[in-house]
Amino acid sequence: MIAVFGVFCAVCVLVAFVGLVLVTPRDVPRITGTCALILTFAALGVAILR
Fold this sequence. Notes:
Elements (H helix, E strand, L loop, with lengths): L1 H22 L4 H22 L1
Keywords: Membrane, Transmembrane, Transmembrane helix
């Protein structure tokens, strides 16, 4: 169940990035770095819980 939720969140992030590229392509690198940091912490949290 957790894996399905993780895949759902990853797909949502990818769709959000595509929308971001279409709206403001100049802000993508700065926002992508922040999202990568958040996803890293989330993955670390999941790894600790497992």
